[in-house]
Amino acid sequence: MRTIVCMLVAVAALTAGYPQAAHGQVRAKAAVTCVSAGQVLEYDCTIRLANARSGEPLSGLTVSVGADMPSMPGMHNVRAVKATEQAEKGAYKVRLELEMHGDWAVQIDLRGAVRDRVISMLRFEEADVTDVKPSSGRRGH
Amino acid sequence: MLDLQGIAKHFGGVHAVDGVDLTVKRGEILGLIGPNGSGKSTIVNLVSGLFPLTSGRILFEGDDISDLPSHARVGLGIARTFQNIRLFGQLSVWQNLWVAQNSRQQRQEVFFKRWFGGSAGVQAEIERTLEFFDLAHKRHELAANLSFGEQRRLEFARAISARPNLLLLDEPAAGMNAEEVDQLDARIRKMRDDGFTVLLIEHHVELVMSVADRIAVLNFGRKIAEGPPAAVQDDAAVREAYLGTR
Amino acid sequence: MDDYLVSVLSNIGVISFVALSAYLLLLTGEISFGQQAFFAIGAYAAGMATAMWGWPLALGIAWGAAVGAACAVSLGIPTLRLRGLQFSIATLAFAEMVRILFELFRYQVDIDGEPVGPNGTDGFRSIRYIFDHNIETFDFMMLIYTMLAVTLAGFMLLERSRLGVIFRMIGEDATLASLQGIAVARYKVLAAGIAGALAAVGGGLYAHLTTYVEPRTFDVMLGVHSLAYGLIGGLGTALGPLLGVVIDVGLLESVRLFAGYRMIIFGGLVALLLIFRPRGLLDERLVNRIGRLFRNAISGSTRTGRGSR
Ligand SMILES: Nc1ncnc2c1ncn2[C@@H]1O[C@H](COP(=O)(O)OP(=O)(O)OP(=O)(O)O)[C@@H](O)[C@H]1O
Ligand SMILES: [Cu+2]
Ligand SMILES: [Mg+2]
Description:
Shape of chain C: globular
CATH superfamily of the largest domain in chain B: P-loop containing nucleotide triphosphate hydrolases
CATH class of chain C: Mainly Alpha
Strand order of the largest sheet of chain B: 6-7-8-3-9-10
Oligomer: heterotrimer
Radius of gyration of chain C: 21 Å
Strand content of chain B: 15-25%
Bound molecules: adenosine-5'-triphosphate, copper (II) ion, magnesium ion
CATH topology of chain C: ABC transporter involved in vitamin B12 uptake, BtuC
């Protein structure tokens, strides 16, 4: 009993200083399309960013793109690369170098006027890249 | 103190122990001898609770302990050694003795002392045991790195550390040279003087004859003789069993 | 600090928790292929707490750890009776069952006009605590390492304590341990509970680090790796499994040459070590030898100090 009280006090102490949530922030959504860049395991991706609520394109952001394999948490560390903004509003381009074929979670980190992370689940294969459908089985490991 | 009432243990068709009655009285050293495979170690295993009885009862200080798990029997004060040395090789000599020291006096220790390093009393006790068994200079060594003789001594020391009411020694002299056997003899005598009760299993006939108060003889899982050393030595059935003319 | 380095170090830190979880069970002699289940439980529980119920992060992670420990204890009570391989298979079966349950688990609430929560095979997206609270990735990494440091300090204390000695005794020879008066079953359940909590803390941190998890994140792959980390790095000290993680995630990964063959090299490394150094690089003997060198150095210097006076 005394231990439980101690634990509760400790948790309360730990949580006392937690930062307050900033609500009403802009959230982003992304549409990602990738094609093979000719080299094995290299892909050119176009990312179209928009405000998740209004659908308005998000331009002028610093966008860096990394990738992680959901089936191997934390064990692949693809170096995040900066995406370059395109003439088209809200569009960014990036070249990804992956470590193996299979399903990757493409992590799009936004900085600037909007700070957010958008995840896009894609299946990278030799020739083409497709969206991962939940029902389409597992690939990669 | 220990009362075995018709205990039996069958491994499939092997009747390792087959209806043995045996009593160990408080303060005595009872020698248990018998040819190879006669069931001596099995009796020790049964008393320490390593496997269940096929039939019979084990009484300790008048209570039936036949169904107690082995750790609870240790709590009552039954400690043992093994015929083939069994130590925690990856732990130091000191650690081997520390946890064995879990008898009554340690339960009274305050929480912190009990879990971290032991109280001064417990530490002093371990030091005394280390001295008594001539292991003090090896206290930080891993048990696996000790020589054979040192390992035997450590096993003995560990059994004593529990301050047992009853000590079961399964062939403590196995593999020892004459000098080491003499030391062992002296230590067992010292223990009797300190009031320990001992069940001593031994092939080394000289040793048993010299330290035991009484001797029981086992053959094919049955007790064939019991009595003072001199009487047992002259027993016809015992001679037959040892000479193998059956 | 470089973003890449921050992300690699954060990953190493998070994976270390599962590695330590498997290590604790290895100490008590249990080979569990199922610690990823508690990682998953911690990830979902902590994620739900912060993203859906609006709890603060520390409370969410503590909650995840509590749920992980509770599940581990209730799994441990029936399964720890099983010996060796049977136990390993039971843990594996449990972990797969948990993964499949998460594939079926749908529970979403509406947050800012967007559905948030576990959504079957699609996983659990938008665990956006660190974005909602403007926590920099560097700061989150520091949080991971603070918690890891606390955990390691706990392990160092454990190794010096009677409890640590008891765990090792049970691991080496459970029968002999029971003959020292140790209630083996109880201590095993305790170890399983702590291990479950550790893996769950790792999961909670992971969920907030990546902002999303999905059932296949908790595939047996993760369990096998976390087990291997202790076996590679060594079972003599809690630094062993951390060394294992650093070797895999840090070293093998950074050598690009191995890309694609990494699994094969990793497997080969484990096999070689199991043959030549069955208790890992930092095994008990090495740790004991280092400890004695240390002691000798200290007593040596005090002796010469006294002599010169
Ligand atoms: N765990 C077991 N499973 C099967 N058979 C066993 C087991 N333990 C002992 N036995 C058998 O029981 C019989 C008695 O063995 P036990 O070890 O008790 O003899 P012992 O008198 O101690 O012999 P020794 O002098 O060689 O030590 C032997 O035939 C042995 O093979
Ligand atoms: Cu992979
Ligand atoms: Mg024997």
